[in-house]
What does this fold into?
Amino acid sequence: MDIIKLILIFSCIVIVIKLKKPLYASILAGILGTILLYGINPLVAIKLMKNGAFSLGTTNLVLAFYTITFLQRMMEKREHLLLVEKSLSNLFNSRRVNAMVAPFIIGLLPSAGAVLIASPIVDNAGGDYISNEEKTFITSYFRHISESFLPTYSTILLALNLSGIDMTAFVLAMLPMVAVLFWLGYFMHVKKIPKDTGIKESTDKLEDVKNLIISLWPIAVIIVIILGLKVPVHYAVFPIIILSFMINKFSFDEIKPMFISAIEGKLILTTIVIMMFKEILTFTGVIQRLPEYFSALPIPPVIIFMLIFFFGTLVAGAKGMIAIALPLAYATIPSGGLALMILIMCTTYIAMQISPTHICLAIVVEHYGTSFIDLVKKTMPIVLIFVVISSLYSYLLFLLL
It folds into this structure.
């Protein structure tokens, strides 16, 4: 019954999306469906939603989003985002490189708001050569590749801690999969963009590198602060905003409008609603029961756990599934080692790219005014191909190690 209920809940979400309603409205429909199907007491449901909306995690996420958006406004005001694009164009003279590399670099910053910093660069690189839906995909897809392997992200740090797998070994083993992700994104969508930027090739590459550093130093310093001090994102961004204010000689009149323009009401509302949805789903206990259902299938344990992590991530997000099921996976398959870790992380990573609980996807579709369904349609072929390739790669690692 749990599986049927989950299908019905996600059907509610899809139907509301199909009716051209905002993503927060469709997630609210999912919340209502969950409450009704699981018979959750209304008072308990209200308490759960309150916990989801006002939890420390939600507050940190909203503050991170606000401060990153504020920093983006400052970078736009001093045309630093245009400088990133210009520097990349001068260094590589390729629209395609701009569309892929800029979101990837900006994606090193572990924040939901980072996707908005990358979007203007993708817009300019894609021009009229690709659709709005393709720009949505490219911005989101390449911004998230770093989440598949870099231990700047809490999901990977949690998984490495629970599994005991060496960090360096994991990162090195994931690099071929990172290359596959770049190749798939390029082949499926970026290839449509003409390579030529129309700009004369630069003769001063050193100056271009210098400009790239000037434009991206805030992001680089934020990453160092987060990694070094292990603080929430907004704690790292706030001092950089102050530093940028002084270095770039902003006046108060320039900064004043940004306090309001950095508030993205729809996106904040969507974020809060998604966190409420996760709280309600967790309360039902369905996530904890998924392994039991899949274990009844007459297939090898490794495939069972692939299914658990894929479908569980769609419902509960990567971090929740890592915390719940990764210890169980290693207890069931003690010889899994690095190969099992690669398989699990590839599976949860790619599932997150089509999960309605993924905050960044909500942000990017709201920003471009596109549909979550359209984004899933663009991503789905890559999901299927990547699952096959990563499975074969993991099996090869298992044989070799």
DSSP finds 21 helices and no strands in the chain. Residues 2-400 form one domain. The longest helix spans residues 372-400. The chain has a mean pLDDT of 85.
